[in-house]
Design goal:
Number of strands of chain A: 12
Largest sheet of chain A: 6 strands, parallel
CATH architecture of the largest domain in chain A: 3-Layer(aba) Sandwich
Strand content of chain A: 5-15%
Distance between the termini of chain A: 82 Å
Largest interface: A-B, 47 and 48 residues
Order of helices and strands of chain A: HHHHEHEHEHEEHEHEHEHEEHEE
Structural class of chain A: alpha/beta
Strand order of the largest sheet of chain A: 2-1-3-4-5-11
CATH topology of the largest domain in chain A: Rossmann fold
Oligomer: homodimer
Number of domains of chain A: 3
Chain lengths: ~350, ~350
DNA sequence: CGATGTCAGGGTAACGTTATCATATACCCT
DNA sequence: AGGGTATATGATAACGTTACCCTGACATCG
C-alpha cells in the first residue's frame, strides 16, 4: 500500500542552520532568545525559519532541557461547572505563561488519580494542580518523591505537604446557616457530602458551629452522602420525612441542591414558603439568570489562576521553602430560596455580636 | 544555592538492563510487548523494573518512535455543556485506547485556533479533533500538510478535507419547526447563530424549508447573532417587537434559548401560553429534571466517541482513503415549552405525507 | 601593554528511547 | 545433512534539541 501524501519532511534546526549558514546552536539561541546574537545573524536565521516553515520539536527540546512546559489539572469531575470555571482560570493563566495544560478526570476514584499521576510523571509534566479524590496525601507524596511540584486545590489535605488554594468552607457555611437563623429557622437539616473529603467535613462543621452557637440541636438533622444530584435527592427525601419537618435545608454542594429541590417538589412543598434552601456553590453561570438559590459562591476562576501562580513560582524557585495556604474569600448571595420560617411568629434570632 | 532535595535519580532503561543483566533493547521489548522474549528474561526484567521503580520516559520514546500517543480536542468553548459532554466521550474513548487528550479553547477565534494548531504540531500530537471556529479549512490544511490526521466535529467544512462527525442540523431543525406548525403556529421566528458556521446556517435552512413547505413567509422572521445567551436575549427582544408578534420562537442553540426565555419573561409573556419555544441542544444533563424546553438533543458523548474511533483508524492506517462523514441521529424531546398557537382556532396544519 | 571583560559564535556530547540490522540457537522438514 | 523458519537477544545509530565548554575579536582599564 502506497501512501500518496506529499511528504514535506519537517525541517530541523540543522536544516535551518545550513540554510542560514550558521551552526545549529546559533539557531537554538535565536529560538530561545538566549546568549549573544548579532542582529544580522538573527535576521538570517529568522528568514531561514520562515522559508522552511520550521517548527521546533518540543519533544526533543524537553528531553534535552528537562522541562516540558506542561502542567496538568487533575480534578474529580470536569463536567461540574465549578471545576470547569477553575479549569478556565488555570488554562488562561498557564497559557499566558507559555505552558500547556493537560486535563484529567478521576471521578472521585483514588485509583484513577494514581494512574493519572503515574502517566503524568512519565510525560515529564513540570507541575500538577490537584483536586484530591481521597483524603490521603498519597498522590502528593508520590509526586514529591519525583520532585514534581504540586498545588492542591479546593480541598485541604493533612498534613500539609503542598501549597493549597481553597476557600473557607467552615466560615462560609456558618454564614449561610446564619441567613436561615436570622429568618427564624430553628430546625435546619444539613445534606452532607462524602465523609473524609475536607470540604464536605468543613461545611458540616460550619453548620454545626452555627447551630450550637444558637443553642439548637443538630442530632438527626445531619446526613451524609455524595456530591451528586441523586444523592441530594435521597438525602432530602429522608430529612423531609422527619417529624417535625425541618423548615430549612442546607445543601453542601450545587448538585446536592438540585437533588434537594427535586425532592422538595416531589413532596409537594414550596420554596421558600414551606422550606427554605441554602447551598454551597452557585448554579452554572449559564443559568444564573434563573437562579433563585441562596448560595455561597466560590471564586473558581480566580482559584485556578492563583494556583497556577503558586505553581509557577515553585517551578522557578521563587517560592519560599515552606508550604503556603491561600484562602480566597467566598461570596454570599441571598436570593429567593429563603424566607421567614413558617413558625417564626415574629421572634427572629438576631445576629451575634 | 544548594538544592537540598534528595534526588533519587530517575532510573533509565540502561539501569534496568544492567540490573537484569540484559541489554537495553531487551528491556524495551518487555515494556512494549514487542518481539520475542523468553519467560525467564521477562521475569528478570520485570523484577528489575519493580525494584528500581522505573518509569519509561515518554518524551524520549515519542522522539524516537514518532508517536506521542497524544490527541488534542480543539473546541470553541469547553464551558458549553454540549462540548463538555463531547469532551468526556473523547477522553473516555481515547484513554481506553491508551491515548492522552489535550483540551484547547478557541473562543470562536480563528487566530487562537491557529495558534493552538501550531503548538500542537510542535508537540507532535498524533491526531486532532476539531470543532472549527471559522468556516475556512485553513487549520485543516495546515495539519494535513504536516501529515497529522484530523476529525472535524459538529460542524461541516467545505470542501470536505477530513473525516467529519456531526448531526443533521437541517433535518433536525425541520422536525423542530414541524412541532410548532402542527400546533397551529404560523408566525415563527428563528434566532440564528453566526453566519458562516455550518451548524448555524443549516439550522436556519431547516427552518426555512419547513416554513416554505407550509406556505408560510419567513421574511423579517429570521435574525442572526452569536451562539451566546446575551445575543439570544437581544435577538428575541427584536423579534418580540414585531407586529404581529410571532407565536413561536426557534432558538438555534441552547445558550440562545436561555437568552430568549429571559427576553420573553422581560416582556411579561408566558411560555407556552403566549409564546412557544423550541431549541437546538438540550440543557445540561444534571439539570434535565427541571427542563421544560422542547429541544433537539444531540448525542454529544457519542459524537466524541465516534470521532476518536475514526481518528484512531486513520492513525493505524485502517481507514479508507476517502474522507468519511458520519451523521449521528438527534433526539426530538417535546416538553412543556410548546403549546397550541393562541390564534389557531382548531385549524391545525397536519404533518405532510 | 598585558590583563580582563563583553560579545558572537562553534564543536561535541548527551538526553532516553527504539528502528534497523545482525547474530545465534533450536527445531522442523525433506 | 542441509535448508528453512521461529525464537531470543545484542550492537549501533539515530530521533532533534540543548548543555557545556571552547575560541576569537574587540574594547576597556590600570
Amino acid at each position: 500500500m502506497y501512501n500518496e501524501i506529499d511528504y514535506t519532511l519537517m525541517a530541523t534546526v540543522r536544516d535551518v542552520a545550513e540554510r542560514a549558514g550558521v551552526s545549529p546552536i546559533t539557531v537554538s539561541r535565536v529560538i530561545n532568545n538566549a546568549g549573544y546574537i548579532s542582529g544580522a545573524t538573527r535576521a538570517k536565521v529568522e528568514a531561514a525559519i520562515a522559508e522552511l516553515g520550521y517548527v521546533p520539536n518540543t519533544l526533543a527540546r524537553s528531553l534535552r532541557s528537562k522541562r516540558s512546559h506542561t502542567l496538568a489539572f487533575i480534578t474529580t469531575d470536569i463536567t461540574n461547572p465549578f471545576f470547569t470555571s477553575m479549569a478556565r482560570g488555570i488554562e488562561d493563566a498557564a497559557s499566558a505563561a507559555g505552558y500547556t495544560v493537560l486535563f484529567c478526570n478521576t471521578d472521585e476514584s483514588v485509583e484513577k488519580e494514581d494512574r493519572y499521576v503515574r502517566l503524568l510523571l512519565q510525560k515529564q509534566t513540570d507541575g500538577i494542580l490537584l483536586v484530591p479524590a481521597g483524603s490521603s496525601p498519597r498522590s502528593v507524596d508520590l509526586l514529591r518523591s519525583q520532585d514534581t511540584p504540586v498545588v492542591v486545590l479546593d480541598r485541604a489535605i493533612e498534613p500539609l505537604k503542598a501549597d493549597v488554594v481553597r476557600c473557607d468552607s467552615v466560615r462560609s457555611s456558618y454564614d449561610l446557616i446564619r441567613v436561615l437563623l436570622e429568618r427564624g429557622h430553628r430546625r435546619i437539616a444539613a445534606l452532607g457530602g462524602p465523609v473524609g473529603i475536607s470540604t464536605a467535613d468543613d461545611r458540616i462543621a460550619g453548620y454545626t458551629h452555627a447551630m450550637k452557637e444558637a443553642g439548637l440541636p443538630t442530632r438527626d438533622l445531619v446526613i451524609y452522602g455524595q456530591f451528586t444530584e441523586s444523592s441530594g435527592f435521597e438525602m432530602a427525601q429522608s430529612v423531609l420525612a422527619l417529624s417535625p419537618r425541618p423548615t430549612g435545608l442546607f445543601a453542601t454542594n450545587n448538585f446536592v441542591a438540585l437533588g434537594a429541590i427535586r425532592a422538595i417538589e416531589a413532596h409537594g412543598l414550596r420554596i421558600p414558603q414551606d422550606v427554605s434552601v441554602v447551598a454551597f456553590d452557585d448554579v452554572p453561570p449559564v443559568l444564573a439568570q434563573y437562579a433563585f438559590l441562596t448560595v455561597i459562591a466560590q471564586p473558581a476562576y480566580q482559584m485556578g489562576q492563583k494556583a497556577v501562580e503558586l505553581l509557577l513560582q515553585r517551578l522557578q524557585d521563587e517560592a519560599p521553602p515552606e508550604y503556603r495556604q491561600v484562602i480566597l474569600p467566598t461570596h454570599l448571595i441571598v436570593r429567593g430560596s429563603v424566607g421567614l420560617a413558617p413558625d417564626a411568629r415574629g421572634s427572629v434570632v438576631t445576629a451575634p455580636k
